[in-house]
Specification:
Elements (H helix, E strand, L loop, with lengths): L2 H24 L5 H28 L24
Helix pairs in contact: 1-2
Keywords: Membrane, Transmembrane, Transmembrane helix
């Protein structure tokens, strides 16, 4: 369970969506369908982008130990250490 990516989704969502909307508007597309499509794509890419940022943060953290993970079932234990 990657709880850090859930928190980072709140930051990457608006950044991704805003970037796509700005890119669409800078190309001259000002209609609602284009803006809605850019917003939908940004919404769909928010969690994968947050997951990549989370993995990068953890990879560069010298105190993070990924070997502490103990997978015992399909649903992760909320009390378990961070992955």
């Amino acid at each position: 369970m990657d709880r850090l990516s859930l928190f980072l989704t709140l930051a990457t969502g608006p950044v991704t969506t805003g970037g796509l909307v700005i890119a669409a508007m800078s190309m001259g597309y000002y209609g609602w369908p284009v803006i809605g499509t850019a917003a939908a794509i940004g919404f769909l890419l928010a969690w994968p982008a947050a997951y990549l940022v989370s993995r990068r943060i953890k990879r560069h953290d010298p105190d993070f130990d990924h070997t502490r993970e103990n997978r015992t079932g399909v649903i992760p234990d909320p009390q378990a250490p961070e992955v």
